[in-house]
Design brief:
By secondary structure, this protein is mainly alpha-helical. It contains eleven helices and no strands. Helix 1 (about 5-15) crosses helix 8, helix 3 (about 40-55) runs parallel beside helix 6 (about 100-110) and helix 7 runs antiparallel to helix 8 (about 130-160). The two termini are about 35 Å apart.
Length: about 220
């Protein structure tokens, strides 16, 4: 398999992980029911997550200067620290969890999204210069489906144990991000110009469509 196709396949997993924060309702319900946070407090934590999620300036600057691999390493570190600390705080391992600490670490975990998105999206655009629309569409399709995927994981595997779910989020996406760093790079121009089998893009969209049907059923 050509390296750029391997990177495209790996980027699907990374794009799915970009949507973890869109499944915030899973966490917000627990904060209200088990930790007696008010709706205003839950909204404040969600807002802090949005601030982290959509502030991508440093991720973009780092990509331009150092490339995708360092971005994926930073993303994995943010996910591991952010969700790892949340699992320890809400699990009582670290006592006296409060609004400020939960909001901060949720924002830290959310900040991983622009680092993940920049790393794979911009790299795929560079590696498939004649099919930019197709590779962007694939990434955003799985990005959009990611929230449903993680919500189903919680309800099907972890519910009602939110601490176990947060521990899973601290580990699995981190492994994906760091593993992706080993194979993600911009290929030489000679490889970019090779003939492209359009059927591979079609197959990716078929998989996305089947996944959409599954999560909607």
């Amino acid at each position: 398999m050509e390296p750029r196709w391997l990177m495209l396949a790996v980027s699907i997993l990374v794009s799915t992980c970009c949507a973890i924060n869109y499944a915030y309702a899973v966490l917000s319900d627990t904060l209200k029911d088990d930790f007696k946070f008010s709706q205003t407090q839950v909204d404040l934590i969600g807002t802090c997550g949005n601030l982290g999620q959509y502030f991508g300036l440093f991720a973009g600057l780092t990509y331009d200067r150092f490339g995708p691999r360092i971005c994926l390493v930073v993303a994995g570190s943010l996910i591991f620290i952010g969700f790892g600390m949340l699992s320890l705080l809400l699990g009582g391992v670290i006592p006296n969890a409060n609004l400020a600490s939960i909001a901060f670490f949720y924002m830290l975990a959310s900040q991983a999204q622009p680092w993940l998105d920049n790393a794979v999206l911009v790299t795929n655009i560079n590696n498939f210069p004649k099919h930019i629309g197709l590779v962007v569409g694939i990434g955003k399709a799985f990005n959009g489906l990611g929230a449903s995927v993680f919500s189903l994981m919680y309800s099907g595997v972890f519910a009602p144990h939110i601490v176990h779910y947060l521990a899973f989020l601290a580990i699995a996406p981190t492994v994906i991000a760091l593993g992706s760093a080993a194979v993600t790079y911009i290929v030489p121009n000679s490889q970019k110009n090779r003939p492209t089998g359009i059927w591979r893009f079609v197959y990716s969209y078929i998989v996305a469509g089947l996944l959409m049907v599954y999560v909607a059923s």
